[in-house]
Amino acid sequence: MKNIVRELRTARDWSQRDLGEKLDVSRQTINAIETGKYDPSLPLAFKFARLFKKSIEEIFTTDA
Amino acid sequence: MNKENDINSILCVSPRVSMKQMMKSLVWLAVTSALYVATVYALKHNPQWSPGWRVAVTLAPLLTGVFYLLSLLQSFRAMDELQRRIQLEAWIIALTGTVVVNTILNVLNANGVGFADYPHGLEIGGVYLSMFLLWSVGVTVSTLRYK
């Protein structure tokens, strides 16, 4: 799965740690999601969507 | 970001798992281990104790062991989803790896290629050691995988 989390985060001038604190996850989790090594659960994806005021589909897209 | 969260970040643990929680687990593990050693020593040097008393003393470390287990579960619940996955993968590696090691030792022994020190597979100490080592490998491999 691809995502635009890094773009959304850097546009707000947040560090990975800042974003992790806002979503109540570790910095490693944010890094793993941004690099595409880990796909978040649906509840966490909803948290991303709520925080960035976008739909889940706008943030996360499938590779295919 | 406070110092505690910096340490948690280095340890690849969720900010929700506090140092206090991790220390609590380690303290219960230390208490359980110390109690186990003490009971083994006491049982060895007091063969005159009644069977009932010996059973009670033998099972004493289980009480503190339960508190260790509960504190581990608390830490697990406080982890974020990626850390839970890493821990699950590590435990799967530890459990299945130990079963495989023990099975190999037993099969080798059954076919006359057994090691003198392990005629019946791993003993309880060997099982703990194998699980700890394989869990450490599992955490390292999984952490690197998601890094």
Plain-language structure description:
The complex is a heterodimer of chains A (64) and B (147). Chain A is mainly alpha-helical. Chain A has helices at residues 5-11, 16-23, 27-34, 42-52, 56-59, and strands at 2-3, 60-61. In chain A, strands 1-2 form a two-stranded antiparallel ribbon. Chain B has helices at 3-10, 19-45, 51-78, 81-110, 124-145. In chain B, helix 2 runs antiparallel to helix 3 (51-78). Residues 1-7 of chain B have low confidence and may be disordered. The A-B interface holds A 17, 20-21, 24-29, 31-32, 37-38, 40-41, 44 and B 1, 5, 8-9, 12-16, 80-83, 85, 143, 145-147.
Order of strands, widest sheet of chain A: 1-2
Q: Tell me the number of strands of chain A.
A: 2
Tell me what portion of residues of chain A adopts beta-strand conformation. 5-15%
Measured on Cα atoms, how large is the radius of gyration of chain B? 19 Å
Structural class of chain B: mainly alpha
Low-pLDDT windows of residues of chain B? 1-7
Spatial separation of the terminal alpha carbons of chain B: 21 Å
Mean pLDDT of chain B: 84
Tell me which protein chains meet in the greatest interface and how many residues each side has.
Answer: A-B, 16 and 18 residues
Helix content of chain A: 55-70%
Low-confidence stretches of chain A: none
Portion in beta strands of chain B: under 5%
Major β-sheet annotation of chain A: 2 strands, antiparallel
- Total DSSP E strands of chain B: 0
SSE topology string of chain A: EHHHHHE
- The span between the termini of chain A is 8 Å
